[in-house]
Design goal:
Largest sheet of chain B: 7 strands, mixed
Number of domains of chain A: 2
Helix content of chain B: 40-55%
Distance between the termini of chain A: 83 Å
Number of domains of chain B: 1
Strand content of chain A: 35-45%
Order of helices and strands of chain B: HEHEHEHEHEHEHHEHHHHHH
CATH topology of chain B: Spore Coat Polysaccharide Biosynthesis Protein SpsA, Chain A
Number of helices of chain A: 5
Shape of chain B: globular
Largest interface: A-B, 53 and 54 residues
Number of helices of chain B: 14
Oligomer: heterodimer
Largest sheet of chain A: 32 strands, mixed
CATH superfamily of chain B: Spore Coat Polysaccharide Biosynthesis Protein SpsA, Chain A
Chain lengths: ~350, ~425
């Protein structure tokens, strides 16, 4: 009898661990394949493009100004206006989505709790807080503005001092940043900081900008003595390994990979890529025609020019006058732990950090 | 007799030590994924200068799936003037040839290669594809895969790093709902990619190129002599060949792609036996080159060795079980005292219960499917099943090495059910 009950107990103890699993199998719980977004494509301006697409689909039949209840990701109130003037919104709290057919002026100190879509130009007043703004024209962001999520413009974006730029600030033309702004992701053609030779705004500004872009490209061409991306050394070509210091005024016609840290002396020219497993310190007036990769931090010295991508698992500091990429050649500056940009920085393309990005 | 008992006891202790080492390895990976610093991959890089890419798809009797993968690849977000699609018809006897020719007539980017002479099998097919390819980067998909729109860019972008030789993306089973086996393979894949591969990337060890949903630099692979048609695990071989020559293999967790997993135990048995046979051939070939390579750090060598021996471990364990049975009937199991008892307990909890189990559990958590954790006890069946067929694969590899016999490629059966249709 004891043997019988022991056998029953044994079978029971053997089966028990499987019981919850049997329930999961029978009821097909979590049985669907893991979700893969088959249409996902990397786009730095994804937030705004997606928002505008969803809103445009819903606004097809809403041609008259006024308030509408629309089903977006959830039921939302959307205000359609011809213009949105400062007087309407000074120190106000706006709790609905705004869609403005012409121009938008937020007034100072207002709070916009929902997204804004402007088809003309937008002017964001001092100390305004807004969730997200998509604009088909230019955007001017005054001092002390706080953006919670994202900001995007088809034209230029000019940002004054002490603004917080949320998750992303992107535009189709020049993104100009004053000092003491913080960011996570930026995209502009180019992104410039105070004193950069590529100003934004207006016809005059655009003409100046194009001239400055030409000047940047010409300077890069002079520096590398007729180098172009197409004839850069292939990465599996010559590689110099495990050097820790390149003296000033050196010229290297190869890629460099080091197991530790590397310092590149002032006024050097590197025709290749650089990868370090430690920190990478680049002196003043250095030109690198390839990409920079570092497991640690990257410090790019004053007036240095990098033609390729800058990617660090640590932080990136760009001193005064640094330029990355060139007109027509979009590049990325990605620092996992943080990015610091100083004056006269010009970056053609995308800037991103998981830590804190700051213009100082 | 005493000597024989001593040898048996020594072997048991050896088995226990191996188990504990692998348990620690799995534990470190799991802790890294849960609490460690996650290393950024290159998918956030935006670069206007795209590299030229050739997508190779080896196909042997793939009429069920050929059109699906071509349709998906024709939709990808990559400049078509920078990309070519080369499906390699490898001795197909069904309608694969006609399907490929139909696409080639409609789309100039599709450039099929038809092979009916020479060696059959994936490595030989890839070699011929590489010969025809004009891209700087070669990206490989198996024919049953369903690539999403952004995947080519996500894989190609990391070759901006001058040291990267190959990249591996993440494989996600699409036919999970078919039966118990597909559900178990699904959670095993989760553990293998979401935790194991990603942790090895985080810790700068040696992630493995898996032969599909991945790519490599054409010029490097050509300079290293392309694929060895005699090796069934051409992916593992490439991982080691690149690594010992100073090239890095990266893992891209975000580059996700659907695949079909075997729906019958017979098909799975053949698949895992082939993997074991190929992987163990790579072990015999790269054991010393790995140890001697001046290009690898100590920890890369250590991880590389553990990975190299991974298909030996079930064999060691199987012999260990038999060893313990013999010792038991000889009445010599008194070695389980003190520290050895703890070691044995650790080993048991590792391979008998928890080993890849806590990796799999963590992966389910990270993937947002916590209910799948309740399926973990069922993995015990997979464990014994794998142990047996991996041991058979190990014997195959031994015979391969000793006799230099020619290997024969066995294709994994395709199913294409409603799960895949839904994903499309």
């Amino acid at each position: 009898m004891i043997l019988f009950w022991c056998s029953i107990l044994l079978v029971f103890l053997f089966i028990v661990p499987f019981v919850p699993g049997i329930r999961v199998l029978r009821n097909k719980i979590d049985a669907a394949p893991l979700s893969v977004n088959m249409d996902y494509c990397k786009d730095p301006r994804y937030f705004a493009l997606s928002f505008k697409r969803i809103l445009s689909d819903q606004l097809k039949d809403c041609r008259i100004t006024g308030f509408y209840k629309l089903q977006l990701s959830k039921q939302e109130t959307v205000q359609i206006a011809d213009d949105f003037a400062a007087e309407e919104a000074r120190n106000a709290v706006i709790g609905h989505i705004c869609c403005v057919k012409n121009h938008f002026a937020s007034g100072n100190g207002s709070v916009f709790e929902k997204e804004i879509y402007v088809r003309g130009a937008a002017n964001i007043g001092e100390k305004t807080s807004l969730r997200a703004l998509a604009c088909d024209g230019d955007v001017h962001v005054q001092r002390g503005v706080n953006i919670i999520r994202w900001l995007d413009a088809e034209g230029d974006i000019t940002i004054e001092e002490e603004c917080r730029l949320g998750i992303s600030a992107t535009c189709g033309k020049t993104l100009s940043l004053a000092r003491n702004c913080s960011f996570k992701r930026l995209y502009g053609l180019p992104v410039v900081t105070a004193g950069s030779p590529v100003p934004a705004g207006g016809e005059r500004g655009q003409a100046d900008g194009q001239a400055a872009e030409r000047e940047v490209a010409a300077a890069l061409q002079r520096r590398v003595r007729a180098w172009s991306c197409e004839d850069s050394p292939s990465p599996e070509g010559a590689i110099e390994r495990d050097i820790s210091r390149i003296p000033p005024h050196s010229r290297k016609d190869c890629s460099i990979i080091t197991a530790h840290s590397l310092t590149i002396g002032d006024d050097s020219l590197i025709r290749g890529h650089v990868k370090t497993y430690g920190n990478l310190s680049i002196g003043t007036g250095v030109t690198v025609t390839g990409h920079l990769f570092a497991e640690g931090d990257i410090h790019i010295g004053r007036d240095s020019r990098i033609a390729g991508i800058v990617f660090a698992h640590g932080s990136i500091i760009c001193e005064d006058g640094v330029s990355v990429g060139s007109p027509g050649r979009i590049r990325s500056v990605i620092g996992q732990k943080g990015i610091v940009l100083r004056d006269r920085t010009t970056i053609y393309g995308y800037i991103m950090t998981e830590g804190r990005g700051a213009v100082v | 007799m005493e000597m024989a008992v001593l040898v048996l006891k020594a072997y048991l202790l050896f088995t226990i030590t191996i188990m504990v080492i692998y348990a620690l390895r799995h534990y470190i990976f799991t802790v890294n994924r849960l609490y460690g610093q996650q290393r950024m991959y290159y998918h956030d890089i935006v670069n206007s200068e795209l590299k030229t890419v050739s997508v190779l798809i080896p196909m042997h009797n793939e009429e069920k799936v050929a059109a699906h993968i071509l349709e998906q690849l024709l939709k990808v977000d990559y400049a078509m003037e920078k990309m070519e699609i080369i499906p390699i018809n490898d001795f197909s006897g069904d309608a694969t040839r006609e399907i490929l020719d139909g696409y080639a007539a409609k789309y100039p980017a599709v450039k099929p290669v038809h092979r009916y002479t020479g060696d059959r099998g994936k490595p030989a097919a890839l070699n011929e594809g590489i010969e025809k390819a004009t891209g700087e980067i070669i990206i490989v998909f198996d024919a049953d895969y369903l690539p999403p729109r952004g995947i080519i860019k996500e894989i190609a972008v990391c070759f901006n790093d001058p040291e990267v030789g190959a990249v591996m993306g993440r494989v996600i089973p699409v036919n999970t709902q078919a039966n118990l086996l597909t559900r178990l393979l699904d959670i095993e894949r989760s553990g293998g990619y979401q935790v194991d591969q990603q942790a090895r990337y985080n810790l700068r060890l040696m992630p493995q190129y898996g032969g599909t949903v991945g790519g490599f630099r054409k010029s490097v692979v050509v300079s290293l002599g392309c694929f060895d048609p005699k090796v069934l695990a051409e992916d593992t071989e490439l991982t080691y060949r690149l690594s010992v020559n100073g090239w890095k293999v990266l893992y891209a967790n975000r580059a996700e792609c659907y695949e079909e997993v075997p729906e019958s135990w017979n098909v799975r048995a053949r698949q895992i036996r082939r993997w074991s046979r190929g992987h163990n051939c790579v072990l015999f070939k790269y054991f010393f080159p790995l140890l001697m390579s001046p290009r690898l750090s100590f920890r890369e060598k250590a991880d590389g060795l553990l990975l190299l021996f991974i298909y030996c471990v079930p064999v060691i364990l199987l012999l260990g079980f038999l060893d313990s049975l013999v010792l038991f009937f000889l009445g010599n199991m008194e070695i389980f005292a003190g520290i050895f008892f703890l070691l044995f307990l650790g080993a048991y909890n590792t391979f008998g219960n928890f080993a890849p189990f806590y990796q799999v559990g963590t992966a389910c958590l990270l993937d947002g499917t916590p209910q799948r954790i309740l399926l973990l006890p069922f993995l015990i069946f997979n464990f014994f099943f794998n142990m047996w067929h991996i041991a058979l694969g190990f014997l195959d590899a031994l015979v391969d090495i000793v006799t230099w016999r020619k290997t024969k490629w066995h294709k994994t059966e395709r199913y294409r059910n409603e799960g895949a249709e839904r994903a499309l």
